[in-house]
């Protein structure tokens, strides 16, 4: 029996059944090791192990930002959360850092007070984060506001439409919403580029836990809506349309740097924005409200089976999407809709 000796000078020959058995065992061990590596490579514990990851998250003290922050913390990342509310920042960082320590997590939340709507503030925030870390893995441009709401006119008269959409919407509302929701993320993206680039120099993380440098925008289903009932605010609709388009445009712009840009487009998630006054001192939102101005056709897991207590999307829904985007190297320029099917029943350009 002939046995090839790889790249050696000449073939070897198997003369006994014992040698043949040894060869089979060697091949079996090699294949078993290979198959074990394949299984380990795609196991969730490795895909979502964020130890060593450094994230910057705007609007991270409450709402969807709080859901993102706790997801990152729970899976091992260090998270700089930027918010305007100092007392809420203090409560959130203290509460969840203590919880992380009790479960032996080395990850932590670091709070920074900031207003993300200006160029100078974006520069200051990047410099402040840079004092604590030599690199950033991911920037979440998540902070947002909703102003300039309207009550739909009840009569098909021009005067009623002017009153609803013009007289009762201020210039300040438009300026503020666009500045924070759309312009601020532009300034922050470029201010943090050097720190994101440094993540590449760090080797994209540690062996077995390597992640692409990335910017993730929080857009909204309202970036695609044609039915204003889903938002009841044209400043908000305009701002989310803008950030959705910017996500794809900036993804192309940053291709030479190898920095990805993706987005999340939520539908209804109970927060201080969607249900004013619902946020507690720990950044969590709670409501008994079940009726909204738009439809959510997809049902959640029943509460008695462990489903969410609030109507709409859950913390777990946001967490699974965030972990997917963070760990995926092949998605770029995409905004992922997570709306419970609302845009299946409301007119949209999606």
From TrEMBL:
The entry's keywords: NADP, Oxidoreductase
CDD domains assigned: SDR_c (cd05233)
Gene3D superfamilies: NAD(P)-binding Rossmann-like Domain
InterPro entries the record matches: NAD(P)-bd_dom_sf, SDR_fam, Sec_Metab_Biosynth_SDR
Keyword NADP: yes
Lineage top rank: taxon: Eukaryota
Family to which the UniProt record says this protein belongs: Belongs to the short-chain dehydrogenases/reductases (SDR) family.
PANTHER family: 7-ALPHA-HYDROXYSTEROID DEHYDROGENASE (PTHR43618), SHORT CHAIN DEHYDROGENASE_REDUCTASE FAMILY (AFU_ORTHOLOGUE AFUA_7G04540) (PTHR43618:SF4)
Protein's name according to its UniProt entry: NAD(P)-binding protein
Organism whose genome encodes this protein: Somion occarium
């Amino acid at each position: 029996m002939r046995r090839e000796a790889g790249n050696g000078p000449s073939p070897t020959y198997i003369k006994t059944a014992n040698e043949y058995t040894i060869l089979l065992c060697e091949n079996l061990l090699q294949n078993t090791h290979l198959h074990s590596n394949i299984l380990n490579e795609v196991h969730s514990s490795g895909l979502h192990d964020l130890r060593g990851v450094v994230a910057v998250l705007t609007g991270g003290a409450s709402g969807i930002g709080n859901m993102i922050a706790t997801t990152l913390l729970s899976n091992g990342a260090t998270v700089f959360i930027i918010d305007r509310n100092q007392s809420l920042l203090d409560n959130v960082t203290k509460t969840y850092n203590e919880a992380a320590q009790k479960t032996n997590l080395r990850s932590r939340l670091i709070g920074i007070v900031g207003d993300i709507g200006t160029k100078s503030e974006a520069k200051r925030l990047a410099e402040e984060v840079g004092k604590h870390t030599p690199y950033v893995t991911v920037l979440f441009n998540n902070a947002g506001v909703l102003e300039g709401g309207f009550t739909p006119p009840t009569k098909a008269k021009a005067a009623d439409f002017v009153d609803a959409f013009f007289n009762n919407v201020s210039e300040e509302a438009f300026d503020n919403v666009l500045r924070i929701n759309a312009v601020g993320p532009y300034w922050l993206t470029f201010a943090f580029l050097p720190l994101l680039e440094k993540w590449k120099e760090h080797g994209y993380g540690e062996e077995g836990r390597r992640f692409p440098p990335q910017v993730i925008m929080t857009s909204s289903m309202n970036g695609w809506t044609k039915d204003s009932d889903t938002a009841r605010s044209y400043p908000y609709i305009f701002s989310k349309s803008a950030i959705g388009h910017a996500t794809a445009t900036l993804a192309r712009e940053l291709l030479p740097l190898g920095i990805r840009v993706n987005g999340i487009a939520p539908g209804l998630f109970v927060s201080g924005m969607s249900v004013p006054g619902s946020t507690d001192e720990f950044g969590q939102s709670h409501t008994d409200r079940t009726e909204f101005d738009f439809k959510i056709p997809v049902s959640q897991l029943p509460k008695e089976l462990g489903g969410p207590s609030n109507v709409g999307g859950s913390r777990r829904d946001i967490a699974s999407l965030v972990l997917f985007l963070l760990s995926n190297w092949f998605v770029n320029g995409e905004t992922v809709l997570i709306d419970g099917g609302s845009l299946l029943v409301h007119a949209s350009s999606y």
